[in-house]
Amino acid sequence: MNNLKQLPLHAFHLGNSAKITSFAGWEMPLSYGSSVKEHMMVRENLGFFDVSHMGEIIVKGPQSLQFLNYVLTNNLSDMSNGQAMYTLMCNDDGGVLDDLIVYRFSSEKFFLCVNAANVDKDYLHLNSIIKSFDCEVLDVSDKYGLIAIQGPKSTRFLEETLQEKFSEIPRMHFVQKSFFNHLCLVARTGYTGEDGFEIFLPIEIINEFTNLISSSFSEKSNAWVGLAARDSLRLEAGFCLHGNEISENISPVEARLLWAVSFDKLDFIGKSKLEIQKDNSDYGKVLHYEALHRRIPRKGDNIYFEESIAGKVLSGGYSPLIKKPIGTAYVQKDYVSYKQKGSWNADLAGNMIPINFTAPVLKKMI
């Protein structure tokens, strides 16, 4: 794992029996034991995630709103102060450079949480455009850690532990709170499909904060959750992972993310190409599936309709909720209309695994 960055809490995770893996240039906890148990703990109770590898970028100045409305797909004019919004950053061809959450302090200050692997690329991209606008871009990733507390019991746990009113924060909103005499950003956001919070903490207090929540968790089991369960949780919820369901080669139109694209804006980067793609129906689609076999299709495996290659697996994993392999696939445009017809299989090294296209697991359970 040479040249990989380490989380500020790296020693803490090793002390909690974390199995470490490389991800997006970082040494990250993969699991602390059973990833299936970690997954179900988040679904039924709560879990802690150290996602301090994520990047943080501040945009501030008189024309911050105009600038971000040009570089991001969603309409930030629709946001109120204190609101969070999912959006995409596209290139001129409509490919997705990154997906992110943007937090609005005011029309002159925004806080962006971007994917770890894309921090440098995003920062350079933003700075290449900002010259026409009266604002500035600051990469503050080294100043913050990020702890997510996710699950149906997360609100009660945080209120009892930190003696603050977390229940008063609406979903997809944020507030600033002081912990250990440092101002922190507390957002009711997450990547699991459960209620929960993501707390951006100054690096100086991340150890104190972590020790407090860990020692306050009353059950015998460890509450920490690694990347393996984070991935299975987001797959069940139907959330995209950049580099898989969205990329510079898979547009928001193909990924069925049009709800995060505001074509009513005057202009934004990639708008014209995305409009042409959408209006001409000239695209394949990202679809969710369940596999009818215990073996798990993995990224890059071919998808067959009858005897023809019709697409590729983008993500594959195991769903502890339905006890089946699940995943996503890019299906080529000529085959999309057949998604509920005929025979569909994923090719695992010559073994054909039957699959059914379906809604994401959590959406079927609503």
What's the topology here?
Elements lengths: L4 E2 L3 H6 L3 E5 L2 E6 L3 H10 L2 E4 L4 E6 L3 H8 L12 E7 L5 E11 L2 E6 L4 H11 L6 E4 L4 E7 L3 H9 L11 E6 L2 E6 L8 E7 L3 H11 L10 H11 L33 H9 L5 E7 L10 E4 L2 E12 L4 E8 L12 E5 L2 E7 L3 H5 L1
Helix pairs in contact: 2-7
Give the tags:
globular, single chain, 9 helices, five-stranded antiparallel beta sheet, 22% helix, 366 residues, alpha+beta
Protein architecture, described:
There is one protein chain. This protein is an alpha+beta fold. It contains nine helices and 19 strands. The protein has a six-stranded antiparallel beta barrel. A five-stranded antiparallel β-sheet has the order 4-10-13-12-11. Helix 2 packs across helix 7. The longest helix is centred in the middle third of the chain and has 11 residues, at 119-129. The protein is globular. The mean pLDDT is 97.
Taking pLDDT < 50 over at least 5 consecutive residues as the criterion, the unreliable ranges are none
Structural class: alpha+beta
Strand order of the largest sheet: 14-17-16-15-18-19
Largest sheet: 6 strands, antiparallel, barrel
Q: How much strand?
A: 25-35%
Distance between the termini: 41 Å
Count of alpha/pi helices: 9
The count of strands amounts to 19
Mean pLDDT: 97
Q: How many whole angstroms does the radius of gyration measure?
A: 21 Å
- Compressed to H and E, one letter per element, the order equals EHEEHEEHEEEHEEHEEEHHHEEEEEEH
Helix percent band: 10-25%
How would you describe the shape? globular
